[in-house]
Known about the structure:
The chain is mainly alpha-helical. The protein has nine helices and two strands; from the N terminus they run αααββαααααα. It has one domain.
Amino acid sequence: MNVEIAIGPLLEMLEIYIWPFVRIGAFLMVMPLVGGSFVPLRVRLLLAVVLTTAIAPNVQTTPTQDVLSAAGLVTMIQEIGIGVVMGFLVQLVFDAIALGGQVIGMSMGLGFAVFLDRARGVSVPVLGQLFMMLGMLVFLALDGHLAMIQLLAQSFRAWPIAEQGLTVPIVAELLAWTANLFVFGLKIALPAITALLVVNLSFGVMSRAAPTLNLFAVGFPVAMLLGFAVIFLNMGILVENVSNFLTLSISAISSLLEL
């Protein structure tokens, strides 16, 4: 008994789901929380399949080129770029938060206290990892993950598949946004850095007045205790800054969808 399988309908169904799956999969590989190496690849793949199943039927414009053709390869690269850009804008905020924590840790003398960041597989200062975890909790508290999924679904209307990729204005806006990494990191680290700078200047004056004073025995614990005190006192401002940074990041993605 010979069984014939119609390839045409299968290819048409593949074209409907493969392009949204590529964009969504690339987005999940970069998105905070889900894109970390601590999340198994199978979980990310399953989540991409679930989101694709929910979003793909609502995608109005579908490409006409073959999936296995040269034009299909270009479209796939285009979709990967769009997904990576959307996830990168949010990930940049978390990198800024970690940068601020690392600067504070170095100023306090905690540069030697490192912790393995399982999201990237590298060692980072403990304060940087602490601030990163705080940013993730704020991100979840603000329903940032739901907002990102909503923006991902809207991206298929703003950037239809195989019609418009990453244009020059979008790339220029993305490059301009990367400068905010240092601005965000400086705003997070500035209170603690200012307080520790005053302490270091005070110990510098004390060393001139009392040369026999052992600054390493006195200055190191004082700077560490003062650093923890400043972090504790500025925790409310830190949470507010993280909330504002994440809101600006989501707004930046919305503005990119309008370009």
